[in-house]
Amino acid sequence: MEKLLYRLRGILDDRGLVTASSEAEPYLTESRGRYRSEALVIARPVDTNQVAAIVDACSAEKVSLVPQGGNTGLCGGAVAGSKQLILSLERLNRVRDLDLANNTITVESGCILANLQQHSLSVNRYFPLSLGAEGSCQIGGNLATNAGGVNVLRYGNAREQVLGIEAVMPSGEVLSDLNGLRKNNTGYDLKQLLVGSEGTLGIITAAVLKLYPYPDHSATALVALRDLEASIELLQTASHASNGSLSSFELLPRLGLQFACQHIPDCNDPFDRPHEWYVLLTLQGSGAGLGLDTMLQSLLALTLEENIIVDAVVASNEAQAERLWGLRGGMVEAQRLEGGSIKHDISVKVSLVPEFIQRAVRAVKNRLPDIRPCPFGHVGDGNIHFNLSQPLEMDTQEYMSLQGEVNRIVLDIVADLGGSFSAEHGIGMLKLEEMQRYKNPVSVDLMQRVKKAIDPDGLFNPGKVLP
């Protein structure tokens, strides 16, 4: 490590190297508190050339490195050991190019997602990736984990937003593919190999991203469902009747709404009586002629008549829409105040969402009758956050000791339904056992061969993604 430090001091400026424990703290603490980095060195390069030089130095000294963005990951993907280096991309935060005719923006990986959204808005364009950590997460990390969020239904995951990537490879070479082409059929699509690889194959330093016309009109409603199966009926009807404007479709359980209203200021139940299941949906579009308000009212009237929904609250302005969306965010925040929570980020076919939830709830309650299931999320793309709050009378430590057993119960059902044990949060360190148990062995073997071919010394984010 001393030899490496000597090399790094020749590469980086005074702000580029962090070794003092007090300054290192923000880079060491994982967001959920499950893991903690032990790295003694944090390197903070300012450009791609410095990233490449750091990779060369680490390679020469056989020191492995862990790329880190905003450090908001939920699976331990940016956690480093004591003999590893954390490579923070936070200082690579420039907007390199903006091409309005091509509807693209080229940004460096350390650009904070919310800043990217605002920069796009300033030129009347829209970058649709939106998630809870957008105020601190960075686009490089979003791409490295193939982040999802609330707009996947209409715009797709982070993967779908990428037209080009620049990345430093384990060899120290720079893969430069920032041409912004929407059609480029010249062999393997290497950028998509790096998206979702969690820094195990290359360090993303910049990307060309798609922009869209800014949706200056929207219509939002929180609806109470007849039952859980009605969520799929409502989704089908809304998809057909919204003329392509349905952008978000979020399932909320009664317990989640109750948590939010109990713990989070400004969260209030907008209905006169409780309902078991709700959907928060938003239509978005550009141009005054869309008539989204009328479209939403017609949709609600039709589904109310057909007994798909039993009640609805419609936002009459942007402030009211934000309050309704505040219930969705408040539900996530409030769960932390209800004791231990065993969390799952799964996906199944959209048509199987009700069956999964019903089967999984029955199974966990058979094991722990007083467990409090709080399944919520992106039912429009089949991604459910199947979170389980501890029984009220149970000790938190005792409850969390059952996590492995409960995970097996839930994920066996996911596997039986042909689903995925990781929908949008990635693998990191947290899900290595599940990767071994549930991922197709041929797929795992091919992934390991790709890793060995690109990173033969295993220096890029070792111990992540692959068992």
Characteristics:
single chain; 467 residues; alpha+beta; five-stranded antiparallel β-sheet; 16 helices; 19 strands; globular
Write the layout of secondary structure elements.
Elements: H1 2-11, E1 17-18, H2 21-28, E2 41-43, H3 48-61, E3 65-68, E4 85-88, E5 95-99, E6 104-108, H4 113-122, E7 125-126, H5 139-144, H6 152-155, E8 162-168, E9 174-177, H7 190-194, E10 203-210, E11 212-213, E12 217-225, H8 230-241, E13 246-253, H9 254-263, E14 277-285, H10 292-305, E15 309-314, H11 318-335, E16 341-342, E17 345-347, H12 353-367, E18 372-378, E19 383-389, H13 396-400, H14 403-416, H15 432-438, H16 441-454
Parallel strand pairs: 2-4, 3-4
Antiparallel strand pairs: 1-2, 5-6, 6-10, 7-11, 8-9, 8-10, 12-14, 12-15, 13-14, 16-19, 17-19, 18-19
Helix pairs in contact: 1-3, 9-11, 12-14
In words, what does this structure look like?
- It is a single chain.
- With 467 residues, the chain is an alpha+beta fold.
- The chain contains 16 helices and 19 strands.
- The chain has a five-stranded antiparallel sheet with strand order 5-6-10-8-9. It has a four-stranded mixed sheet with strand order 1-2-4-3.
- α1 runs antiparallel to α3 (48-61) and α9 (254-263) packs across α11.
- The protein is globular, with a radius of gyration of 23 Å.
- The two termini are 27 Å apart.
